[in-house]
Structures are given as structure tokens and as C-alpha cells.
Specification:
Helices cover 38% and strands 25% of the residues. The two termini are 27 Å apart.
Length: 237
């Protein structure tokens, strides 16, 4: 049986993953938080799941590489240095990075990419997201995931427009960020043209959806060879 190790075990997502693992009968190798024995956990686990903080990523990747343990990175708010570290680690160990582990959100991203590719540049694209009042990064990792999908559909890299001043420029992919209450995560992608618009969206009603997706991805990742993987690989997209 595949044993999962959780980094950030006492965080909201860490607790949700542990609860979901217990419900599904998935084995846990243990969990650690700040100051814990990450290397020991990597030695005991068949695959690691990290939902901690960006500052902890270096230790996670080092432990995964030292023990040859695949690792799922669910931490958001990562910068260029962290992404470069993930790229480097993926040369020697299996790494799956996910801005959002919901299966529904990742299917939504595929639909957004297809819509952007087929509709053409005369359709404006705007992304609206809302999360709980305590969320730090903005736009959310999920909103950026959807933005990257839209940009990929158009055949270029994403240049997000967050604080728009003045009229909309052709080709912009804009983001509106809302924070409040206990919202687990609402995302809406609006594609608008003259006289019509399409709205593609997803609402997270419980963190359990992210935990279920993370477990499915971790079980899929266990035993994989070195490389950089994504949720679309898990879904076969």
C-alpha cells in the first residue's frame, strides 16, 4: 500500500488530506510542520504532499531528492526562484506542481484553453476570483492557472492585468480579486464579444475536494520516474 507523507500537516489542507486519507483507507507515513524531520518523513513515505509555505519548499525538495521520493507541491504564492528549484529537482525525482488539486478546476482549465483557442482574439477574457479573508496571495494560484490556460489557447505567455486603470486594451487577460468571509474558492472565466458572452466557472464548497484531488494525484505520482508533472497528466488531458 502506498504511504503518504504530509508536509504542513497541521495546516488547513494538511488536516483535510489526513481526514480524506482516513476515509479512503489510504496509508499515512506521518506528517511534519515547521522544524519537523522532513528527511525522515521522505525516507518513510512513498510520496510526499507539501501544502506548507514557500519558505519551506527548499527543504522539501532537498529531502525528496535525497530519498528519491516523489513529491506533490500544492503550495501557492511561489516565485521564480521556487519554480527554478522545482525544475532542477524534477531532473532527478518525480515532481507534480498544482496550483489547485481540484479535479473540476483542472478540467475547467482545459475547457478555458480550448475556448480561447477556438473563439479568437476578438473575444475579451476576464477572470474573477473570491476567497476567504485570510488568503494572502492575489490573484490566487487557481486564477493564474486559468489565466495561463487562456493565454496558452491564444498561443502566448500570460501577462496578467490586475489593477486596470483606464480603458481595456485589446488582448488583455484581466483579473478581479475579491476577499471575504470563509469562501473556499470561487472562480469564473468570462469570455465576452459584441452581443454575447460565455461564462465558465467553478465553486469549491469544501476543502475536501482539494484533498481528494491531492490524494488521487499523489497515488498516481508514486513510483513515477523523474520529471515535472501536472494535474492534467493525472486526468489524462
Amino acid at each position: 500500500m502506498t504511504a503518504i507523507g504530509i508536509i504542513g500537516a497541521e495546516g488547513r489542507m494538511g488536516r483535510a488530506i489526513a481526514a480524506e486519507a482516513a476515509e479512503q483507507g489510504v496509508a499515512l507515513a506521518g506528517g511534519v510542520d515547521r522544524g519537523g524531520d522532513v528527511l525522515g518523513l521522505a525516507r518513510a513515505a512513498d510520496v510526499l504532499i507539501d501544502f506548507s509555505v514557500p519558505a519551506a519548499l527548499g527543504e522539501t525538495l532537498a529531502a525528496a531528492q535525497a530519498m528519491g521520493t516523489p513529491v506533490l507541491i500544492g503550495t501557492t504564492g511561489l516565485g521564480p526562484a521556487e519554480h527554478a528549484a522545482i525544475d532542477a529537482a524534477a531532473r532527478t525525482v518525480a515532481v507534480l506542481q498544482a496550483a489547485n488539486t481540484s479535479l473540476g478546476v483542472n478540467l475547467l482549465a482545459a475547457l478555458v484553453e480550448q475556448a480561447a483557442a477556438r473563439l479568437g482574439a476578438d473575444w475579451d477574457i476576464e477572470i474573477l476570483e473570491m476567497h476567504h479573508r485570510h488568503k494572502v496571495d492575489a490573484p490566487s494560484g487557481t486564477a493564474l492557472l486559468l489565466g495561463h490556460a487562456a493565454a496558452a489557447g491564444r498561443g502566448h505567455a500570460l501577462t496578467p492585468v490586475v489593477d486596470r486603470m483606464g480603458a481595456r486594451r485589446p488582448g488583455d487577460i484581466g483579473f478581479a480579486v475579491l476577499r471575504g468571509g470563509s469562501v473556499a474558492g470561487d472562480h469564473q472565466v468570462i469570455l465576452a464579444a459584441e452581443g454575447e458572452r460565455i461564462e465558465l466557472g467553478h465553486r469549491a464548497e469544501s476543502r475536501a475536494i482539494f484533498a481528494r484531488g491531492a490524494l488521487r494525484a499523489a497515488l498516481w505520482l508514486a513510483g513515477r520516474g523523474p520529471g515535472r508533472y501536472a494535474m492534467k497528466d493525472v486526468l489524462g488531458l
